[in-house]
Design a protein that fits this description.
Length: 279
């Protein structure tokens, strides 16, 4: 029995012998190690972009075209036409006073409602403030007790300017539709709205109590406004073979601009310095 145990012990070699250690070594190289030995270094692949709905808010938003989710009676429909910055509005205002190209090319495919609304409101405010200042100066120069401003002048300016900036474009558009002229209503609104820009500096200059100078300024504003509107509308309305369309639109533009200029002159720029000596 002892001899058998000794034979078993002789067969099982100690695990710390060199022969046993060699049996447990693994000389099979992995793929990365094989590439490293052969000189091939693989570059890590970029992670694929997240698909829609799986970015969980960490991916940058992708640009997309604005979409209108409601009809013309909803706020969302009109919000897209107020999506302009001050630079664009300023460029369009300058283009209405110093036109270098057709205004329809300036606004392109992006007509807005913010500019016409802001300009109309600014003209109303400028007329009211400047007429109040001019009235106070005239009262002081004429040795009067003072000048009392009236709200009826403000209400007149609000009604006249907002009708001019909304109803007249719709009427011009209706004339174009009647004569089968392709016209965009928002573009016509921009033409009338931005055409009021000239009245902002003119109202400031009309504070000067010189009636002749005021007449000259009002005439300049009238001419600039009419030339801007007719020059912009002419390529559109001339597409109609019926000459009545051009006559009606031009007559409406010139007549409304003349009426607005006379209203401003006699309602807001009427204060003068009385140089007649008192007896």
């Amino acid at each position: 029995m002892a001899g058998n145990y000794e034979a078993i012990l002789d067969v099982d070699d100690p695990i710390d012998t060199p022969e046993a250690q060699l049996e447990f070594q693994n000389f099979v190289l992995s793929t990365a190690e094989q590439n490293l030995v052969s000189g091939k270094v693989s570059t890590p692949r970029a992670a694929p972009p997240p698909t829609s709905g799986t970015d969980y808010g960490f991916a940058p938003p992708q640009p997309r075209a604005p979409q209108v989710t409601g009809g013309f009676w909803t706020i969302e429909f009109y919000a897209q036409y107020f999506d302009v910055d001050s630079t664009e509005v300023g460029q369009r205002m300058l283009a209405s006073i110093f036109p270098k190209q057709n205004f329809l090319q300036v606004i392109g495919e992006k007509p807005d409602l913010y500019g016409p609304f802001w300009i109309s409101t600014s003209v109303i405010f400028a007329l009211f403030v400047t007429s109040t200042v001019a009235g106070s100066m005239a009262a002081w120069l004429n040795d009067q007790k003072g000048y009392t401003w009236k709200l009826d002048g403000l209400s007149t300016a609000v009604a006249a300017i907002y009708i001019y900036a909304t109803a007249l474009p719709a009427l011009v558009w209706g004339i174009g539709r009647y004569f089968s002229v392709p016209m965009n209503l928002l573009q016509i609104v921009d033409v009338f709205g931005y055409g009021l820009t000239i009245w902002i500096p003119v109202s400031l200059l009309c504070i000067i109590p010189l009636d002749l100078m005021r007449w000259v300024l009002v005439l300049i504003a009238f001419v600039v406004s009419v030339l801007f509107q007719t020059r912009t509308i002419q390529p559109l309305i001339s597409q109609s073979p019926d000459k009545r369309a051009l006559t009606l639109v031009y007559g409406l533009m010139v007549g409304s601009a003349a009426g607005l200029a006379l209203l401003f002159k006699f309602n807001f720029f009427r204060f003068v310095f009385d140089t007649t000596p008192s007896t």
